[in-house]
Amino acid sequence: MNTAFLRDLAAPLMDAHPAAHALALNFGQVLVRVHTNSSALREKLAAYFRDFLAAPELCGAPGQADIAITAIESASPDLGLVYTPKQPESGKAWIKEEYIDLADGRIVRKRLTNMLFLFGGGFNLAVGPCLANENQVVNFINNRFIEWKVNRGCLLFHAAGVSVGDTGLAIAGFAGMGKSTLALHVMRLGTDFVSNDRVMARREADGLAMYGLAKMPRINPGTIVHNESLRTVVTPREREEFLSMDADALWSLERKYDAFIDECFGPGRYRLKARLAGLALLNWRRGGGPLSVREVDLAKRPDLHPVFMKQVGLFYEADGPALEPGFTSESYLDLLRGCPVLELSGGVDFEAAAKYLRDFLDASAART
């Protein structure tokens, strides 16, 4: 561990770039306050998080925020540190991030954008070309919320989430199997949206609860053109281009778009908490025949555990050694005890799967 201190390194940056603009966000009774030196960045973030804006008078109220974050728009600073590359995940070749652990926190550097993220002990700072990399600032804000929830007993799931009223369903799947695509197909059937790619869950006094992130789905063209509710995400010309493509080429096209829930499905359709009534696991494939859905016992299916388990990664700091999360198969099995788990196998069929899951949610809601 480096003996340098996070706040000492950050102080000259913050003194040189006073963060005079503030934004208050309400993430399900967790107050997040963002300060920035850029009015343009403040407006961009306000537009992105428009479903979660808190009262303006909370923007600058000292001591009231549960999570405080500063984002400085500037050239990327050289702090004179030697970073350790984060090795890519299995199947990926590029090193995207590097980091250094300090006496009181961690710094993560994004190699492609030169964005720096400093965090530890409740101090959170993003610095660099923030306006050109708004999505990384959004991710940093959401990562602070993940840390907050994990440090209060949640396990992290690699899953999307939808709900009918207070009754929620998490949807997980192996890479490329379409958990976000399926969640948005279920949304067409009148559900609310809870989360796109990460879900946190824990046992509470009234049962198993899941929490989502204020992160809009980032979807590919194949998802867009096969869901009428997503028509406004791309221009008519882009839609025509995508529809003219071969099906395999379309689904493999790596071009991402933000799908704002209010624009695609109407206002008031985003909630960040629901009762976790079930977990759906996608284990299907194209050309795999008819869709098959069955309830499974996860204790007998360790092959399915990697579908939903998710480690916290570089952007997490435990709130003391006692709270270092034990993200093991046993901890997930214990948490999910009594929660129905559905395996969707056979062939890919988003419409049939969406109808089945909507019926499952209705039946679960009726039992409460």
UniProtKB/TrEMBL annotation:
SUPFAM superfamilies assigned: PEP carboxykinase-like
InterPro entries, per database record: HprK-rel_B (IPR027597), P-loop_NTPase (IPR027417)
Protein name, per record: HPr kinase
Organism whose genome encodes this protein: Desulfocurvibacter africanus subsp. africanus str. Walvis Bay
